[in-house]
Amino acid sequence: MWSTAFAAYFRDNSSAVRDQLTPGLVDVIEQGLDFSGADVADAYIQRNAYYESWRAFLQTYDLVLTPTLP
What we know:
By secondary structure, the chain is an all-alpha fold. It has 4 helices and no strands. It has one domain (2-58).
């Protein structure tokens, strides 16, 4: 999802600004362009299912404490 967002952002002008981008970002953009719309939609569906499972689990708690490092 992250790489497809960059691909969408630079889709119309990537060739014009390519020399101003870092090689790593160019790779991310190219990887994002390899995904289809159905792939992106499926990723959103999976993310939503993950979110909903956590939302349902946490609905019974008023406070959740997680360990942290000092």
